[in-house]
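Would you kindly consider the sequence and fold I have copied below?
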Amino acid sequence: MSLSRIRQEDLKSYSVVDTSTEKVYKSTYGPTRTDVLIKLLSLSELNDRSRQAVQNHIEYISRIKSEHVTQMVGIYRTPNTLGIVTQWMPNGSLHSLIYQLNLYPVLPLSLCIRILRDVSEGLTFLHNLHPSIAHQRLKPCNILLDAQYRVKLSDVQALDLPKLSISSDENNTHRVYMSPQRLQGHEPTAADDMYSFGICAYELLSRQCPFKDTDPLKRDTLVVRGQRPQPSIDIILKSSNLPQSQRMDLSRIISLCWHQDPNMRPTAAKCLSQLRSILQTFSVEESKREMDSFVAKKEMAMQACQSQTRTLEFHIQFLDDCWLTSHRNRTRSTPEEGTKVPPLWSEKKEKRSGVCFLLFPHCLWRTLPKQTIHCLQGKGLVSLPVTTSTNGSHMLTMGHHPRTERNSRASWTHEEPVGHSNPPPLLRWKNCVETLNRNLEVLLNSITEGHLNQLMDNMRSKSVLSRDDTEYINAEQTQKARIRKYIETCCEKGEEASRMTLDSLLDRKIIYINPV
């Protein structure tokens, strides 16, 4: 492969960064001293032919050079893992911009139009290549934003990757952005990208999830029959400060993008021309003033968040040894006897009452292979995670502790999670859906953020919740709103999902059930 192979020593360590949609791996590329994103693909279940198909795909995509397409730095290889190393986008994705209201309470309309213009410019580039490339997976989390909030398209699917390299859950996340033709199984075309572009434009301008009140099982059928997101784009734009003629042009082009007939959808070049014209209605001074205010407010919000946020760094070896392939029984997950195990933690610690605390994401701890845990325990490096009673975060504690002062050396210790001593009772009704609905207020006051994360982890592991479902739940701004959204989602999915939620709450002794 002509694409640069990145050595382990070039990526000294990596950190897990929690974005609005998923946890991603961030590292620093030694030769250029720039931040990079590592997207991991598991190769352990692929045969030689499928592995070659993955490599051919990556090689092909790496040749795409455009200011609006993310550029690959290289690939990081281990025996069972392929890491695609690309530019790091400091302002995350369009999904973050839309839904992180604490960071972005107001979006300047000029910025929204500029983002849509950049996306259409990137699509124009892809569609005009020879042969033409359809993105196929255009959605807000694949529209990345650099330091100046300029767009970089990611996850371009020029070739079909083997199914085993992408989870079925991930494959289902973009169905809300799929055209009627793609939902019916037709081959992807540029017109399908334009449908996705129209849905993304609506989501950005409305700042709400398309079809959020529609049963996902019914949504596909309704889209094929011609239904589109509500309220209409005309209503969404009515309150904007665009001149009426420009407002009508923008509304018309978005409506045409999701036209039922793919031949009626505009090309990306046509959208680009229209959006450039609309963007010219904003004065340079006004746009700059809005952006300066927008950036200043975001920085203030970030500073407030940083006091509550910690980044945990890990040695690059554990990208393969622990996190990605932990659900498989692989002997390589256990370091050989006598092997020097690199530290799993950074040197950034917070001291409280003589104890050092490290925040450790619950979902990552759960992915650590049992063999690796036992090995690290045996080396005195790690014990078990701790759940705090305040926010459900998982912490590893190291240092002198009342329970371990008798030990002559610092060690990792474990405390049992603090739960409800007297769990609140629920009234049992004729079925699980009704039981959840009738006891909603009790659940809102009983389920902590940590409990909610555990519930979602459990439901996702059993493919009851999709990635889209968890995105919509986490997009809610308060803890109670997220719990309410979770309960509503389970009830929408039916009796089985509701029963699993109740069973999980009972097992954790968060609640108990009384008969009616």
Observations:
- The chain has a mean pLDDT of 75.
